[in-house]
Amino acid sequence: MAESTRLIAVTLDETGLPAPTPEMEQERRVAIFDLLEENGFALQGAAAPGPWRLTLCVRDRSLLFDFATESGAPAGGYELSLSPLAQVIRDYALICEDYFDAVRHHPPARIEAMDEGRRAIHDEGARILARELDGKAILDEPTLRRFFTLICGLHART
Questions:
Q1: For residue 97, what are the domain limits?
Q2: Pick from 97, 89, 146: which is nearest to 121 by CA?
Q3: Which of 15, 70, 129, 146 is the most buried (most CB within 10 A)?
Q4: 55-114 pLDDT per residue, tens
């Protein structure tokens, strides 16, 4: 991926949000690490070329994206309603709770079956997110999945 079409920093603005569960905090850390290691992200209509720094936050049932250039100059932003994602986020949060419990108390076969269901819901969330970002940004599939994880981690705490 070209340097001009990628994110080089991702910050979550967690102002006013309760602390995440240890499991969700770990998922968030892994998603950010993986996202920064490899991402495909093209910001459409940017005020400046990439690479970009991104700050994500949830406010009033909306997800706010705030972009800056590598040097920190403002590069634009947008707001997405979380309404189209609300049900799949709830479903994902529920299955994650069950999955994290299963990891501690159930045999591997049960954990694998739950993980398949978790991945299916996660894929659906990434598809909805891609539709909502149409015209704003172009993301490859792994980047969409990582963004969905971050959004779930923020939204579950609101």
A1: 3-155
A2: 89
A3: 146
A4: 999 888 899 999 999 999 998 899 999 999 999 999 998 888 888 888 888 888 888 888
State the DSSP code for 133.
T
Domain count within the chain = 1
Distance between CA atoms of residues 80 and 15, nearest Å: 18
Q: Are the C-beta atoms of 8 and 70 separated by less than 8 Å? A: yes
Q: Which amino acid belongs to residue 97?
A: E
Copy the structure tokens of residue 38.
């490899």
Give, in order, the Cα–Cα distances in Å from 40 to each of 96, 124, 134: 26, 19, 15
Q: For the CA atoms of the chain, what is the radius of gyration?
A: 16
Cβ(51)–Cβ(68) below 8 Å: no
Q: Could you identify the residue written with the tokens 């490859």?
A: 140
Cα distance between residue 54 and residue 68, in whole Å: 7
Residues 3-22: pLDDT tens digits?
Answer: 677 899 999 998 887 788 78
What whole-number distance in Å separates Cα of residue 63 and Cα of residue 3? 25
Q: Which of 92, 85, 84 is nearest to 27 (CA)?
A: 92
